[in-house]
Amino acid sequence: MNLLRRKMIRDLLMLFTLPRVRSEIARLAKLFLQETTRYTGGIKGEARETKEAFHILTKYMKREKLTSAEKKQFVKQMIDLLKGTGVVVPVLLIPLPFVGTVLLIIVEHLLLSMNIQLLPSAFYQQDKKNLLTPESIEKELEKESNSP
Q1: What is the pTM of this model?
Q2: Where exactly are the structural domains of the chain?
Q3: Residue 34 is inside which H or E element, if any?
Q4: In terms of C-beta distances under 8 Å and separation of at least 24 residues, what long-range contacts does 79-87 make, across chains too?
């Protein structure tokens, strides 16, 4: 039994030290880091938008006149807050570390491939740079198939 365990560990170490596997793991880690930076940027953007919505709300409470743009911005932010509460809170309730984050990333990208935005608008860049959309996946697959 001990010999079998040593052989399995040796084989796994040999497998993960192969250059192709190592580069693939590095590529996946880089994609994961890009996603986490997008999520942190989205949280910062949501905080900024919520602060602006709070200022609009205080202006309304003081019975000051609101412009139609302010009204639209406030409604949009309230919808974003409800989206964030409905998505992020249940995922954070998963007790295992990083499982909730990975699950959120997977579900969000599956829905994004169907053009459904699950998260609030601050989490999505306007130019869709570095997002895993169906178009970006197809481009990446084409690059890989064209490379020698």
Answers
A1: 0.59
A2: 2-146
A3: helix 19-61
A4: 80/46, 80/49, 80/120, 80/121, 80/122, 81/46, 81/50, 81/53, 81/120, 83/118, 83/119, 83/120, 84/46, 84/119, 84/120, 87/118, 87/119
Classify residue 46 by burial, with Cβ atoms within 10 Å: 0-12, 13-18, 19+.
buried
3-state DSSP call for residue 113? helix
User: Could you tell me where the beta strands, DSSP code E, fall in 25-114?
Assistant: none
Give long-range contacts, CB 8 A cutoff, 24+ apart: 33-41.
34/130, 35/105, 35/132, 36/101, 38/123, 38/125, 38/130, 38/131, 39/101, 39/123, 41/122, 41/123
The SS3 call for residue 90 is helix
* pLDDT tens, position by position, 89-141: 777 777 776 777 778 888 888 888 888 888 888 887 765 555 555 566 666 66
- In terms of average pLDDT, the best of 12-21, 52-61, 83-92 is 52-61
The pair phi, psi for residue 144, each rounded to 5°, is: -65, -40
